[in-house]
Amino acid sequence: MFRQGVRAVIPAAIRQAGRKSGAPASIATRLIHAGRVTVGRSVTASPLYSSLLTSLRPALPTVIVRGMFIQSRTTPNEHSLMFIPGVPVLGEGNGTLDLPSYKEAQQKSPLGQELFKVDGVRSILLGPDFITVTKVEGDAWEVVKPQVHGIIMDFFQGGKEVVTDHIPSGSTVIHDDDDEVVAMIKELLDTRIRPAVQEDGGDIEYVDFDDEGFVHLRLKGACSTCSSSQVTLKNGVENMLMHYVPEVQGVTEVVGETEEEKKMREASDEMLKKMETKIGTL
After folding, report:
1. Of 80, 99, 242, 265, which residue is the least packed, with the fewest Cβ within 10 Å?
2. Does residue 62 carry a pLDDT above 70?
3. What percent of the chain has pLDDT over 90?
4. Do 180 and 43 have their domain in common?
5. For 74, which DSSP code?
């Protein structure tokens, strides 16, 4: 639980996360002031910020499954668990891959496809070194968890590929055509916000910055169905972005696909159908 009395711990944890990711010195990192964080507005307690206080976190439970060590960690979302296999999943420096359905997993990830075979699995998030599994409300972890452990162990011991296509680079990668404001927003998200959110089995995806000054973000993994997600967005992410980037007027959550994303998906599906038809005629 985030405590106001330990705010001084946050910058150190953020800097450590930045060093771990190999991020270069940048506009956002230079805004960190020698062990102090002042966001200009009060930050209400949010469970997702508990990951910054690593000294307060209890030791992770470790399950030994036929020679492989798999750690599991609870998240602020009671329906989501993190599984840490001790080997790279997507690998450091890569983004996360959200698999909200079995159809998505079929197209993108053999590991996700296997995990969806477990009754009660609702969605999956693949991270650099973790897997977040969200179960259906009403199903018991006592039943779901051992099956997930077994599938993860068999998959990695079998040396299979985690994804079928390229590994996602992440939505916060700064592109040449990004203006200064968008670059600052992405830098803050990548170095100050996403590391903390990923520690709790979730992620935040940058979608857009509109002409009215609103940043559009999508919550993934444990965050997407967490009851404290709006607290995190408004009292954590929004306050920080508005403090460091005066052009930001607020933050809004994107649920589902945007129109542009829908068009891209439909075009991709159409191309896939044509390929399958062509292969079927050979």
Report:
1. 265
2. no
3. 46
4. yes
5. E
The span from the CA of 70 to the CA of 84, in Å, is 6
Structural domain containing residue 137: 59-157
- Indicate the SS3 state at residue 217: strand
What are the CB-based long-range contacts (under 8 Å, 24+) for 173-182? 181/209, 181/245, 181/247, 181/248, 182/209
Q: Are residues 138 and 74 in the same domain?
A: yes
Residues 82 and 128 grouped into a single domain: yes
Residue with more model confidence, 15 or 202:
202
**Stretch 81-107: mean pLDDT:** 91
CATH number for the domain that contains residue 14? 3.30.300.130
User: Bigger pLDDT: 179 or 277?
Assistant: 179
Listed residue (221, 219, 203) closest to 77, CA to CA: 221
* Cβ count near 143 (within 10 Å): 12
**Mean residue pLDDT across the chain:** 75
75 and 135 together in one domain:
yes
Mean pLDDT of the region 60-72: 63
What domain count does the chain have? 2
